[in-house]
Design brief:
- The chain is an all-alpha fold.
- It is built from five helices and no strands.
- The protein has one domain.
- The protein is globular.
- It starts with a helix and ends with a helix.
- The mean pLDDT is 87.
- It binds heme C (HEC).
- The site of heme C has 20 residues, from helix 2, helix 3, helix 4 and helix 5.
- The site of heme C (HEC) has 20 residues, from helix 2, helix 3, helix 4 and helix 5.
Amino acid sequence: MKIFLSISLFLCSTTYLYAADLFNGELQHSEKCTGCHDSSIYSREDRKVSSKPRLVAQVNFCKNNLGLMWFDEEVSDVVEYLNKHYYKY
Ligand code: HEC
């Protein structure tokens, strides 16, 4: 099911101009990204991420540490989700 979803997302994204899917970002984040840190890390006072490019880099870093095989679109969904809710760059 998950594979099917990923494939259909991929097909959609190559057919149409891709707009980040915040709902998917939230879903992926809650499924994969809350094992080591919770969301409070994104809004703590001395947070590491200080710009949008750094947010992209950090999401990729954590993703790669986890060994997730995400498409760029899924990375950008999660980046936009985090940016909208926490970072606001
Ligand atoms: C294997 C453990 C682990 C998992 C799972 C993990 N992270 Fe992280 N993450 C870390 C560590 C360690 C830090 C750095 C914490 C620090 O510097 O205090 C971090 C920091 C971050 C930060 C920067 C927070 C700040 O200070 O601004 C972001 C953004 C982030 N992670 C996103 C993600 C995303 C997105 C995922 C899911 C793909 C994810 N993380 C999954 C370990 C993890």
